[in-house]
Design brief:
The protein is built from eight helices and five strands, in the order H-H-H-E-E-E-H-E-H-E-H-H-H. It is an alpha/beta fold and 234 residues long. The protein folds into two domains: 2-43; 79-229, Nucleotidyltransferase, domain 5. Helix 5 links the parallel strand 4 and strand 5 (161-164).
């Protein structure tokens, strides 16, 4: 059922619980909205449209200003965005976190985990900082990205400005949302991973292809690596 919900949501991210329930019923699945709501919470997804209390973090947490309003992004490492998505296995699921450079669409780093813990997000951030240093780091107000452990890594690098999506803003992380759609349709939905090890290896190969070989129309048919580094990277 989670696979079906994930595929519907990836194709129609503006669908909420009710519409996903109706689509599942159209597809012949017996389900009710309470179960759909519970599974969407597990997946960490909800419809993309402006509404109050968009953030899933209901606990008191640090909130930083949103720094990207009317921001013109023209250079690599000007803005990094981070987000988490669900990756299905044949009999289980994992969570993928990725840090993407908004100018080049380059995936600076990524990690997989079987839980939504802050640890694998910190690992991704630390690995990204060995590649480059952003002027602005943008995230939502999720528990992982407002955790003291995660923010501590950012604050240890005083040149990094911390930006957080405002509640009620639905397209602040649009580049990462597009990345998830690309990874799902070009990689995940075409595979049936037997194990976390297989998923990790297959995703590693795909992300290398995405960064170094996949041409983007919006980048004048150059690859993310060509834009990010200024030349092709093997």
């Amino acid at each position: 059922m989670m696979d079906a919900i994930d595929m519907i949501y990836t194709k129609r991210p503006f669908y909420g619980v009710r519409k996903i329930e109706k689509q599942l019923r159209r597809d012949g699945k017996i389900v009710n909205h309470k179960r759909v709501h519970r599974l969407m919470q597990i997946l960490g997804i909800e419809a993309i449209y402006p509404k109050p209390n968009l953030s899933k973090n209901n606990m008191p947490h640090p909130v930083y200003p949103y720094l990207l309003k009317n921001k013109v992004i023209t250079l690599p490492n000007q803005v990094w965005g981070i987000d988490i998505t669900y990756i299905r296995l044949k009999k289980d699921w994992l969570y993928l976190v990725a840090i993407i450079d908004w100018h080049s669409r380059f995936i600076v780093s990524w990690e997989l985990s079987d839980t939504m813990s802050v640890g694998f997000c910190c690992e991704a951030l630390q690995k990204a900082l060995t590649v480059g240093m952003p002027e602005i780091h943008n995230s939502d107000q999720g528990v992982q990205f407002t955790a003291e452990e995660y923010l501590g890594i950012l604050k240890a690098n005083p040149t990094i400005q911390i930006s957080m999506d405002h509640k009620g803003r639905c397209f602040d992380n649009i580049f990462t949302e597009r990345l998830w759609r690309t990874i799902k349709y070009e990689e995940v939905y075409l595979k049936s991973y037997e194990s976390p090890r297989e998923a990790r290896q297959s995703l590693r190969e795909y992300i290398a292809f995405y960064n170094n070989e996949r041409m983007h129309q919006s980048l004048n048919y150059l690859t993310p690596a060509e834009i990010y580094f200024g030349k092709f990277v093997n």
